[in-house]
Amino acid sequence: MTSIITETFGRWTRITLNRPDRLNSFTDEMKEELLGAVSSCSDDGDCRAVLITGNGRGFCAGQDLEERKPMDGVEAPSFKNTLETFYNPLTLAIRNMEKPVICAVNGVAAGAGANLALACDIVIAVRSAKFVQAFTNIGLVPDTGGSWFLPRLVGDARARALVMLGLPVSAEEAANWGMIWQAVDDDKLEEISTSLAHRLADRPTLALARAKALLNNGVTHSLEKHLAEETEAQDFLGRSQDYAEGVNAFLNKRTPNFTGR
Ligand code: T3D
């Protein structure tokens, strides 16, 4: 059984974490497959939106701790190595991908699994899901970008408590705090997330990519630098086919047919 399932539906791709019996926690094999799947979506010019979800009752419980069982006489693994070869490239691949990435959180998301979700552009979760910054529970710090994303999403006070206490936060609370976009009924996740993917794949992909870059970069830019970046993006998009299509469709009172060019 492969630990990652990739399915293409016309203009968008779904990536499913598939180790349900271990809450889709990351083994070395799964890491390689997931990074490969995300990179393929990024490189695929026909793919205009990506949906990441999990199989079974959990979304992802982070690093598979069975693989980390301390053994007498065996040197501990280098976390510098796993972070630099998998967790960091994964976060950057999602964040820098020039198309929207949706995360459909089907159950508990813990450790690097929670932060994989936070790296995505639009996160929806079933009401029964919970998010756990589990790292300090086992003597580690948040990784996969969690300590960067969390305070920006929920504010410093909540981020500190979540990280230091390692307590779960429900999907409803996460949505109320602005950590995720929406909490939905458990039996509606697939319908809502796939219709979101369809919808985003039909939107002007170049504009979404430039908007994503602006939102990514704005948090660290001065206003002057940011206005210059907005201007450059708008100037580029003003010459795109999708802009001409959008304006024509508006003036002719019809639905635009965006091609992503
Ligand atoms: O290592 C490096 O490279 C450094 C990078 C680290 C990145 C990280 O992600 S560190 C954080 C690792 N993850 C955790 O610490 C989370 C550990 N799991 C939990 O805290 C809880 O299991 C959950 C909050 C995720 C879910 O709780 P609950 O009560 O819904 O389920 P459970 O009963 O605890 O777990 C169900 C089963 O999944 C259970 O196995 P069993 O008893 O049925 O045989 C449990 O052991 C297993 N499981 C859950 N998480 C992991 C796991 N097995 C291996 N690794 C896991 N991370």
- The global form is globular
Q: Could you give a short account of the major beta sheet?
A: 6 strands, mixed
User: Which structural class fits the helix and strand makeup?
Assistant: alpha/beta
Q: What is the typical, i.e. mean, pLDDT? A: 97
Could you give the distance between the termini? 38 Å
Bound molecules: ligand T3D
Task: Provide the β-strand percentage band.
Answer: 15-25%
Structure in words:
There is one protein chain. With 261 residues, the chain is an alpha/beta fold. 46% of the residues lie in helices and 16% in strands. It has helices at 28-43, 79-96, 112-119, 146-154, 156-165, 171-177, 189-201, 205-218, 223-237, 241-251, and strands at residues 4-9, 12-17, 49-54, 58-60, 101-105, 108-110, 122-126, 130-132, 168-170, 182-184. The protein has a six-stranded mixed β-sheet with strand order 1-2-3-5-7-10, sandwiched between helices. A four-stranded mixed β-sheet has the order 4-6-8-9. Strand 2, helix 1 and strand 3 (49-54) form a beta-alpha-beta unit. Helix 8 packs antiparallel against helix 9. The two termini are 38 Å apart. The model has no long low-confidence stretch (mean pLDDT 97). Ligand T3D binds at residues 22-23, 25, 61-66, 68, 79, 82, 108, 110-112, 132, 134-135, 137-138, 140, 143. Residues 22-23, 25, 61-66, 68, 79, 82, 108, 110-112, 132, 134-135, 137-138, 140, 143 line the site of ligand T3D.
Summarize the structure.
The protein has ten helices and ten strands.
Question: What is the element layout, followed by pairings?
Answer:
Layout: E1 4-9, E2 12-17, H1 28-43, E3 49-54, E4 58-60, H2 79-96, E5 101-105, E6 108-110, H3 112-119, E7 122-126, E8 130-132, H4 146-154, H5 156-165, E9 168-170, H6 171-177, E10 182-184, H7 189-201, H8 205-218, H9 223-237, H10 241-251
Parallel strand pairs: 2-3, 3-5, 4-6, 5-7, 6-8, 7-10
Antiparallel strand pairs: 1-2, 8-9
Helix pairs in contact: 1-2, 2-3, 4-5, 8-9
The chain binds ligand T3D.
Ligand T3D binds at residues 22-23, 25, 61-66, 68, 79, 82, 108, 110-112, 132, 134-135, 137-138, 140, 143.
